[in-house]
Amino acid sequence: MARIVKCGLADIISDLESISALDVCELGSGDTDDLFLCALGFEPRCLTLPCRLNGKGYKAKKAFYFKYSTNLEDNAVNLPELERHLFGIAATVEPIEADALDFANRFKSLLNLVVSDARNRAPKVTIDISVAANRLLLRCVRILLAYELSLRVIYSEAEVYHPSKSEYELNSAHWEKEGLRGLEFGVGDVIPSVDYPGDDLDPLPDSLILFPSFMPDRSKAVISSIDPSLLQYPGEKVIWLPGVPRLEQDCWRLEATKRLNGIGGTTRHFEICTFDYKETLQCLERLHSELSANSRITLSPLGSKMQALGTALFCYMHPDVRVILSSPKEYNAAQYSEGCKEVWKIDFGLLANLRRNLDEVGMLRIVDSNSN
């Protein structure tokens, strides 16, 4: 006998591609990509994957790098070497201003050109998100998902994230004082995302879901922008998603992040992996099911890049959710990350398949009651 069931995220999660180790030699021996994307940053690992890919013969028809409006002098130090590697990869190398008001139009124009040049096939795009700011990553994913292309995401994991455990334990009070947390200087703009404005127009109370970082000033600024009273009396309206590092040796950062952000035993929070975008997707889906009927949901993804990726895919599924972004006035280039531990990839393949899987969630379908 047939019955009608609603498809849930659990029904399609195994069909989504997982993160896995990147074999640079494999990319070098494959077909030429249509487009390679990366970001210019002050962290040395902005050079890691372009350097390795260039050394192993990887080729793309075009290579574009994103430029930020912050830390211009710090970022410029890495520009000559980045361009040298990119010219080894592609004949065409150009920048895109990541923080320009017309960024979305420029990025779409580039993708339109790439699709046009590919004629009757889906172009192949690889994006290196190693030093992509979360605000940039969310924008790119939102735009890319609208195109008929094949997408590969690659990522170089830092060897050392500051503060190290010894640096933090040497003077933990330094990190707990306002304005003395050495990774960032000040809070810049706190603004609703133009890409994820949320379309829930009902006058419902707010629920805020926060991915905290080591810099709690930005989280406080986001909370204050929603309702300043929530800083003192968050109740059930503020939900924290502190990140669990991939490696056990880094797990001290979880407790430090909770301490810095005031996430105590009575604070509503869920600990989720910093490295598994699918775990982020599952957690957000559970919270949406719980909150959406009676709340207007706002997300602030200040955590890891994989958490930001999961957030972007979740927001594609739920356009009622809005995103609020908070950025520092400037980063401390001398105290951020060092080296490269490992390199990773997510081969999403044809985005049409990814969209089809995500679109299934919430849909009704008829199944045979006798089937498993």
Give the SSE layout.
Elements: E1 2-6, H1 9-12, E2 20-21, H2 24-28, E3 33-39, H3 48-55, E4 60-67, H4 72-76, H5 79-89, E5 92-97, H6 103-118, E6 124-128, H7 134-144, E7 150-157, E8 160-161, H8 165-170, H9 172-176, E9 184-192, E10 206-211, H10 216-226, E11 238-240, E12 243-244, H11 252-260, E13 272-273, H12 277-291, E14 296-301, H13 305-317, E15 322-331, E16 337-338, E17 342-350, H14 351-360, E18 364-368
Helix pairs in contact: 3-5, 6-7, 7-13, 12-13
Q: What's the β-strand tally?
A: 18
Structural class: alpha/beta
Spatial gap, N to C terminus: 13 Å
Largest sheet: 7 strands, mixed
Using only CA atoms, what is the Rg?
Answer: 21 Å
Question: Roughly how much helix do the residues carry, as a percent range?
Answer: 25-40%
Record the strand order, biggest sheet.
Answer: 2-17-7-6-3-4-5
Shape: globular
Contiguous uncertain segments of 5+ residues: 179-184
With helices defined by DSSP (H or I, 4 residues minimum), what is the helix count? 14
Strand content: 25-35%
Mean model confidence by pLDDT? 90
Detailed description of the structure:
The protein is α/β, with parallel strands linked by helices. 35% of the residues lie in helices and 26% in strands. The protein contains 14 helices and 18 strands. The chain has helices at 9-12, 24-28, 48-55, 72-76, 79-89, 103-118, 134-144, 165-170, 172-176, 216-226, 252-260, 277-291, 305-317, 351-360, and strands spanning 2-6, 20-21, 33-39, 60-67, 92-97, 124-128, 150-157, 160-161, 184-192, 206-211, 238-240, 243-244, 272-273, 296-301, 322-331, 337-338, 342-350, 364-368. The strands form 5 sheets. A 7-stranded mixed sheet has the order 2-17-7-6-3-4-5. Helix 3 packs parallel to helix 5 and helix 7 packs parallel to helix 13. The chain is globular and about 55 Å long.
